[in-house]
Specification:
54% helix, 195 residues, alpha/beta, 9 helices
Length: 195
Amino acid sequence: MTKIIGVTGGIGSGKTTIVNYIHTKGYPVYIADEAGKKVMQQPKVIQQVNALFEGKVLLDDGSLDRSKIASLVFNDEQLLSALNQIVHPAVASDFEEFKKQNSQQPLVFKEAAILFESGSYKDCDATILITAPLNVRIDRVVKRDGISKEAVLQRMKNQLTDEEKQKLATFTVENMELNHAFKSIDEIIDKLLIK
């Protein structure tokens, strides 16, 4: 039977690098953020999201203006929650389809930035938390996205701390030195295949 392995980590932890490595080892990896972008192109989701924002978030081509949506929900928790109630079920159903397509695989990995915050970790057989010291994470994001330290801290505010996530995670991998992090992932995969 296929095991579902959740992979998460705070912004700048390097989880994308880790899931890319897992993918090179031949395991299917589902990227929840990419799936979210994909489901927001579905006509039914466009219709529901546009209705939620009273028709103010459509582009000329009929697609959703994701940057406008992001700015509208940024400091409005109720609106963000309402948006998530549309998008999360659509992503969950998309993931079910992904699982069916990969049902012959021993392990299927699901990468999600808010795996613990959304509660979707409860649907996983095990979880891997990718961590790095806060100052390293901030530096990585400043360099990667070309934004200020303050903007990075603002984004981090919406995520649980690594300490809170570690209480929920099955495995924790510190991603400071890539070869060491990859070796840790290999060891975790070996354990998951034995269990």
